[in-house]
Amino acid sequence: MMKTRIKICGLTREEDVDAAVAAGADAIGFVFYPPSPRYVTPERAAELARRIPPFVDVVGLFVNADPATVLATCASVPLNLLQFHGDEDAAYCSQFSRPYLRAARVRPGLDLVEFAGSFPEARGLLLDAFVEGYGGGGHVFDWTLIPPALPGHLILSGGLHADNVAAAIERVRPDAVDVSSGVESGKGIKDHAKIAAFVAAVRKADDRL
């Protein structure tokens, strides 16, 4: 039986971090993109990260950030993994001496195999919906656009929630799933029952594979 890893992203409150950890999340994501309603300062993220136990990864999401900003954030927040969602190239992503994920905004015409090949040092490719601006906006994209020969580790994002994540896992077979708005009652406010239901749905899907 495979185990699909689970990342809960966009956390802003202590009680939401605790709920995600208690539900069994494998990773907690903090958004360091100021225009996002889920943005947290590095100081706030450092406070929240102290609640996260060993072996639960702390992930930092950036969008076209100045390298000095990323370095300063890494110095104050115990980030295990960086996640880049903008127009960053491989040289940019690799300069921080940290493992990283590269997000792809999936749409017709985007060659995902070529895109993945442009980031050979990435720990994984995160597949998200294409919308104007950055981030998937809670939208599901057409999973048939994912080529079967796509190399490397895949993290599936984009409009996932407890009622569709099992179908997503069965169709795509990702290494991990990433959820934010699908477990919220409001932007940046997580619903603890939705978190628990999402994790349970992932584990149930894993049991069927």
Mind sketching the topology for me?
Blueprint: E1 5-9, H1 14-23, E2 27-31, H2 42-49, E3 57-62, H3 67-76, E4 81-84, H4 90-94, E5 100-106, H5 112-117, E6 124-129, E7 154-156, H6 165-172, E8 176-179, E9 184-186, E10 189-190, H7 192-208
Overview of this protein structure:
- The chain is an alpha/beta fold.
- The chain has a single domain (5-208), classed as TIM Barrel, CATH 3.20.20.70.
- It has helices at residues 14-23, 42-49, 67-76, 90-94, 112-117, 165-172, 192-208; strands at 5-9, 27-31, 57-62, 81-84, 100-106, 124-129, 154-156, 176-179, 184-186, 189-190.
- Strand 3, helix 3 and strand 4 (81-84) form a beta-alpha-beta unit.
- The longest helix has 17 residues, at 192-208.
- The mean pLDDT is 95.
The neighbouring-strand order within the major sheet is 1-2-3-4-5-6-7-8
Shape: globular
- Count of domains: 1
Could you spell the SSE succession in H and E letters? EHEHEHEHEHEEHEEEH
Provide keyphrases for this structure.
209 residues; alpha/beta; TIM Barrel; 8-stranded parallel beta barrel; two-stranded antiparallel ribbon; 7 helices; 10 strands; 22% strand
In short:
The chain has seven helices and ten strands.
